[in-house]
């Protein structure tokens, strides 16, 4: 309401509708009661306006400070604000096989290598590069090993669809271009464009085979599988972004891999994954912390040697790794400031935290999910 000159003797009532209300009651038996109500309404409105003005000032200040940040820092700050103010909805939660989360793919392209091995504790992962048939030439062409953040995001998306649809044969609804945009990347063509980069990783994932080793201290099992039994895809790497290439309409996971995925699916908030979509190691750190927090009951301490074996295999030295890893942890805690994770000269300490500090389901939820998967 627009303010008007205050009533004579009542300069605390200014809004036109309240002034009119009091004037109408003047001289009546209800005048004093009307005046009291009008004053209370005016005070409440003034407080609301002051609060809104303060919030607007704070938003302007935040926007100004954010505009000065580098692109990735700006993205992390935006996502932190969203996560703090909007609880994770079911559509925000995606899933990844926990062994892939713990052991991870190569960070960079392993030049000339056709196999890759990584272990973490009682879990091991071995990946072998495979071949796809070129639909133009008919040749079986070696695809190389999947690597980097884009392969991780693709696996996260495909594993999520399998868990969500509760079927090894999944319908993939949108285009590759739409997926790339959803992850926060521009859709660009050419030799260095994002379309080529994502297509290459999808081809490599479609062709590779994996060995997943699990050991519980008394029993061991090894799963020898390609992740996908059928993925009708050969995405030409030189296509134009305006072509709007679709994924294969259906993708079929190998049955053993799918069954194992249901038992070992790690929930991940996709909003957080977007914050680190440009860094393979930061994604691995996000996945790893999520896995550890969902099971952590006492403080976890890891030395720098432990951390180097887990996250630094592709750094030239532990010294350079320590410098880079400190930055990675700082970025993670930017998005999750309540996360009780610290680094010192001896290594890392991770303390049990409230589950919402990294948006992972409580242990009871995980247990129920495993029970449903076994049923």
UniProtKB/TrEMBL annotation:
Q: Where is this region: Disordered?
A: 48-68
InterPro entries in the cross-refs: RepA_C
* Protein name in the entry: Plasmid encoded RepA protein
